[in-house]
Amino acid sequence: MTAPKETWTILELLRWTTEYFRTKGISEPRASAEVLLAHTLDVSRLDLYLRYDQPLNSEELARFKALVVRRREGAPVAYLTGHREFWSLDFQVTPEVLIPRPETETLVAAAIEVARTQNPEPGTPSLWGLEIGVGSGAVVVSLAKELPQVHWLGLDLSAAALAIARDNARRHGVIDRIHFLRTDLLAGVKPQASFDLLVANLPYVPRLEWEQLPREIKDFEPQQALLGGEDGLDLIRPLVEQAYRYVKKGGWVLLEVGDRQAEQVAGLLTVAGAYACVETIKDFSGIERVVRARRRETVH
Question: What does the pLDDT read at residue 1?
């Protein structure tokens, strides 16, 4: 499809780009066009329709065309704009981190629900939470915003991811309640029951599913943040075995899992013998997305 040569208004450009993306098999063609054009013009998506008859100048057209070409080649919109909304907050993202997904908001909601039933121990001013694999910081920053009574330790193996998470925590005014640590899972944390909450969104995509992922995910997002081994549980399985050593009696462990994994992960938590109240929580699509369990008062 070749673009016409007349002067472009916002509405004309949106219509043409949407159809162009559709013919190229780009996912969410209308949303992609809107977000990229709003980013180019530094306005909101609503503003595009309030200014629908506004023409673009040559410099704006050139910038937008460059983004359209990269999107056509598969680059995710979030990496092109450097931003992604999550939990109604704006997060900076780069190709060094996984793009936050709407379904992960289920993990945040499930953690908030149980955190609000917890009370600090006598003589302590606050609760403590632990997130393993912070990535962009979307989960831990959202939780810190919602739960001012909780301090957090955020772990990640990637120094680049930790830098982005720190920036996001700083932008949202919660950096004083989150300490970030570079470590491989729990290797850098002393195994003592110090935390009231442990949350994790570890890589859980099975290898066969990974090989079939769309190009914009497989070729652009960090493999180490997605691929969870042959069955997707290479990191979740050892975490289930270790987590109770880090969680206080009555504290909670919350894990995001993939489609059709919840039953198996719930079984692992049950067999471990350290957890009670094991339950699964569905996301907005009806998929069992989070497995939640409470640490027993007594562990044999």
Answer: 47
Q: What is the spatial distance between Cα 288 and Cα 280, in angstroms, rounded to a whole number? A: 6
Q: Quick: pLDDT tens for 233-263.
A: 999 999 999 999 999 999 999 999 999 999 9
Q: Is 122 helix (H, G, I), strand (E, B) or coil?
A: coil
| CA 35 vs CA 61, 81, 105: distances in Å | 15, 8, 21
Task: Locate the DSSP E strands across the chain.
Answer: 83-86, 89-92, 127-132, 150-156, 178-182, 195-200, 247-256, 275-282, 288-295
What's the CA gap between 189 and 126, in Å, rounded?
A: 20
- Measured CA to CA in angstroms, residue 117 lies from 23, 234, 289 at distances of 51, 31, 22
Q: Does domain 95-295 have CATH number 2.40.50.200?
A: no
Going by C-beta distance under 8 Å and a sequence separation of 6 or more, which residues neighbour residue 211? 218
What's the confidence (pLDDT) of residue 135?
95
Q: In the numeric block, which tokens belong to residue 293?
A: 């369990």
CB 296 within 8 A of CB 284: no
What stretches in the chain show pLDDT beneath 70?
Answer: 1-6, 122-125, 299-300
For residue 242, give the nearest of 159, 299, 283, 174 by alpha carbon: 299
The two structure tokens encoding residue 126: 């606050």
pLDDT of the residue at 294: 95
pLDDT for res 118: 82
CA separation, residue 245 to residues 1, 131, 156, 187 (Å): 59, 15, 19, 12
The helix (H) or strand (E) run that includes residue 31 is helix 29-41
Q: Report pLDDT for 237.
A: 95
Name the 3-class secondary structure at 12. helix
Q: Is residue 289 a contact partner of residue 110, using CB atoms and an 8 Å limit?
A: no
CA distance 180 to 189: 12
